[in-house]
Amino acid sequence: MYLLIIILPLLSSIASGLLGRKIGVTGSHIISCVCLGISSVLIATAFYEVCLCNSPVYVNLGSWIESELLTISWEFIFDQLTVSLALAVLFCSTLIHIYSIYYLPSDPHNQRFFSYLSAFTFGMLVLICGANFFVMFVGWEIIGLVSYLLINFYFTRVQANKAAILAFTMNRQGDMLLSIGFMAIFALFGSLNYSTVFSLAPYMNETALTIISLLLFGGACAKSAQLPLHSWLPGSMEAPTPVSALLHAATLVTAGIYLLLRCSPILEYSPTALLIITIVGASTAFFAATCGLVANDLKRIIAMSTISQLGYMVMAIGLSQYNVALFHTVNHAFFKALLFLGAGAVIHSFSDQQDVRKMGGLIKFLPFTYSVMLVGTLSLLATPFLTGFYSKDLIIELAYGSYSFSKMYAFILGTVTAGLTAFYSFRLISLVFLVSPNGNKQSYLNSHESSLAAIIPLIVLSLFSIFFGYLFSDMFVGMGSDFFGNSLFIHPNNITLVEAEYSLSPEDSSFLIKLLPSILSLIGASSALIFYLKAPEIILSVTETSIGRKLYTLFNSKYFFDVIYNNYIFSNGFKLGYSISKQIDRGVIELVGPYGLSNSIFKLAKDISKLDSGVITTYALYITMGFIFFLFVLFSYLILDQNINEIIRLTIILSFSIFASSLKLHQPFGALNFKDGKTTLT
C-alpha cells in the first residue's frame, strides 16, 4: 500500500506522457485523476495507521550504492512528518488535477500537461518519503526539473522561457550548497542515513554542525524562496494557474521547509544557525508583504503572499517550533491552493486578464468565486477560528515568548507583516470584486462561473480552509502532544510553548500584545476597504508625495534585487567567465593541454627527422660524438671526484646539449624553388 502511494502518480505520468496519443485527452484526464484519487485515499489510510495509531513504516527496496564506507539503499520511511505533509501534497494535487480539466479544455498539449503534473507529484513524494539524504535528493532534482518544464509549458512565449530559466538556475545555486552540505554530512558522520546521522548529532562539534546547517539552509532558501534567492518565484507565474497552485501551495516551495524540518536534530545543536534562520525568515516575510502592497498582477500578489507565509514557516523553524512550522505548511497549502484556483477562475472567465486595475465589479458576475476567494483570504489573514489562525498567530506568539533580541525582531516584523498581509489581501478583493467596473464591456458580457470540474475542488479546499485548523490543532501543536514522536526533535531548552500560551494572562494589560496581530489584521483589512472603496483619493495623495513615490518605486522594484543581480553580480560573472574562457581555457589550458602537447611532439619529431640528412660526413659526426659520449660515461667516475648522482645528472645534461646542438647544426640552410622558369633559394 505504501509503495502504491508513490508509484501511482508515476504510472499516471508515464501513461499520459508516453501513451498520450493512444489514450487521448479524456483518457489522460481519467487515468490521472483516478491514480491521484487512489493515492489520496491510501495516504488518508496511512495517516490513520502511522499518525493516529503511532505505527511508522519503513520500506527497503534494495541496495543502490556500496563503495567502502558509503552504503546507500533505496529506502522510504513513512513517519508522522512524512505522512502529514504527503496528506496535503496529495489532496491538493488531486484537486488541482480535477481543476485542470476545466482550466485547459482545448489546449493541444493536454496530455503533456497532465504528465508533468503527475511527475511533479511523484517527485515531491519521493523527496518527502526518502529515508536517506540521497533518495531525498533524487526527489529534490525531479521537482527542480519538472518545475522548469511546467513553468515553460507555453514554450513559445519568451517570458515563459525566461521565467523557467531563472527558476531553474536560481534553484541550482541552492542545489550546489545542498550537495556540499551532503558531502560535509558524510565527512563528519560517515553516513547519509537519517537514523545514523540524527543519532550521532548530539556528540558532534558545534562548529561543524553550524556549517552543515547553513549549507542545508542555503539549499532550502532557493527552493522555498527566502532572501536573497527569492526572485524566481514571482516570475514563475508565467505558468498556467493550476501549475502556480501546485508549485506554490503544496509542493515545490515546501521542499525547503521539509528539509529543515527533517534535519531538526542537526539544527537544534546549532544556535547560530537557528539565529540566522530566524532573522532570514522574519526579513523575508516583511519584504514580501511590502512588495505585495503595490503589485498589480493578480497571480503575483498571491505569489508575494506565498513568499511572506514561507517566511513565517522559516521563522518558526528558527524558533525551534518545528511542529508549528509543519502545521502552518499544511494549513497554508489548503488556503493558498484555494486562492490560486480562485484567481484562475477569475482570469479564465474574464478574457485572461490578470491586471487587477482592469477588473472590478465582478462580485455580481462571479459570486461563487468571490465567496471562495474571500474564505481563502480570511484564512490567510488568520481570522479567528479559521484554519490559518491556529498556526500563523501561534508563530508570532512563540516569537514573543522566547525572550531574546532575535526573537523580538521576529515578533515585531511578524506582527507588522500580519497587518500588511491583511491590507494587500483586501486590496486584491476590493480591486477585483468590489470597486466599480474598470474592464472592457465584452469581458463582462462573457464572464461566467466555472464548471463543475472547478467548483468541486474549490468547495473542498474551502472546507479545508475553514475546518482543518480547528480539527487538527490539538493534534499538531497542542500542549503536551506527542503526535510527531521521533520524527521531529525539539531540544528541551527550546520548548517555549508554555511561555507563549500562559505568560500573558487576560488579567494583565499586556495581554493586548497577544491580540496585536489580530488587531493589526483588522486595521489593515478595514483600511484597504476604506481606501479603495470610499476614499481612493487618499492613496493617490500618498503616491504624489516625494516619500510616497520613493517607497512605491522601492516596493514595486522589489528592493532592486533584480537590478543588483543583473548589473553587479551576473554581468560581472559573465565578464569573469569570458576572461576565463579566453585566457585560461583557450590560453593556458590549450598551451599545456592536448593541443599544446600534440604541437610540441609534432615539432620535436620534425626536428629529429632532420638529423637523417643522407650526408656521410654527418653520420661520421654522429659516430664520433657518440664515441666521445660513451668514453665520458665510462671514465667519468675516475676523472671527476663526484658521486654517482652528480655523474648521472652531468651525463643527462651533456647528452641533451649534444642532441640540441645536432638539431641546430644540421638544419638545412635553404631549399631551391623552381617557379616560372626561375630558380630561387628560400
UniProtKB/TrEMBL annotation:
Keywords: Electron transport, Membrane, Mitochondrion, Mitochondrion inner membrane, NAD, Oxidoreductase, Respiratory chain, Signal, Translocase, Transmembrane, Transmembrane helix, Transport, Ubiquinone. GO terms for cellular component: mitochondrial inner membrane. One of its GO terms (molecular function) is NADH dehydrogenase activity. InterPro entries: NADH_DH_su5_C, NADHpl_OxRdtase_5_subgr, ND/Mrp_TM, NU5C-like, Proton_antipo_N. It is found in: Mitochondrion inner membrane. Residues 1-20 form the signal peptide. It is an enzyme of class 7 (translocase). The keyword Translocase applies. Its main location: mitochondrion. Residues 510-632 form the NADH dehydrogenase subunit 5 C-terminal domain. It is a multi-pass membrane protein. Residues 132-414 form the NADH:quinone oxidoreductase/Mrp antiporter transmembrane domain. GO terms for biological process: ATP synthesis coupled electron transport; electron transport coupled proton transport. The chain crosses the membrane at residues 27-48, 81-102, 122-155, 176-194, 200-222, 243-261, 273-294, 301-319, 325-347, 368-390, 410-434, 454-472, 511-533, 619-640, 646-665. Belongs to the complex I subunit 5 family. Core subunit of the mitochondrial membrane respiratory chain NADH dehydrogenase (Complex I) that is believed to belong to the minimal assembly required for catalysis. Complex I functions in the transfer of electrons from NADH to the respiratory chain. The immediate electron acceptor for the enzyme is believed to be ubiquinone. This is NADH-ubiquinone oxidoreductase chain 5. It comes from Lentinula edodes. The gene is nad5.
